[in-house]
Design brief:
mainly alpha, 153 residues
Length: 153
């Protein structure tokens, strides 16, 4: 019997790694059907569910998820932020929203946005990334420098 999308999402927090991997695979295969539930899962109370939802959304690569993934850059959990940044860095439609995010008050969010922009490689991000080369956060400075170098390759 096929599991529901909701059941698969709950399995993302299972203690059995094989069950988690199976759920990830099923959710990726059922991407269009699972999209809205996965976007909602980015605000689930369990960090493993948020983290895996971000990973799956990156694999599905539907730009409808961009606003929620950018919001997840503010997550309290470092792993969730990293997966959200990785996921959004695969979506070319995220360039403009990520450029806007470079002005966020949180250094972790600015740094994650810079890193994602470096992966996207769009030259129009360079002027805003250059502004971060004088940021108070060394993490943000390093992220901006790395992003500019990646874009200029």
């Amino acid at each position: 019997m096929e599991r529901s999308i909701e059941e698969l999402i709950e399995l993302l927090n299972d203690k059995d790694d094989f069950a988690v991997e199976e759920a990830i695979g099923q959710l990726e295969l059922r991407g269009p059907e699972a999209l809205d539930a996965l976007i909602d899962a980015l605000s689930h109370r369990k960090k493993n569910i948020r983290m895996h939802a971000a990973t799956i959304l990156g694999a599905i690569n539907d730009e409808k998820a961009i606003p929620a993934l950018i919001a997840a850059l503010k997550d309290n959990n470092k792993l969730v932020r990293r997966e959200a940044s990785t996921a959004v860095s695969r979506m070319s439609g995220a360039v403009d929203p990520l450029i806007e995010t470079l002005a966020d008050e949180d250094w972790k969010v600015r740094g994650a946005a810079a890193w994602a922009l470096g992966n996207l490689g769009d030259e129009k991000a360079i002027p805003e990334l250059e502004k971060l080369l004088d940021d108070e956060s060394s993490f943000v400075k390093a992220g901006a420098k790395s992003a500019i170098e990646s874009i200029n390759k």
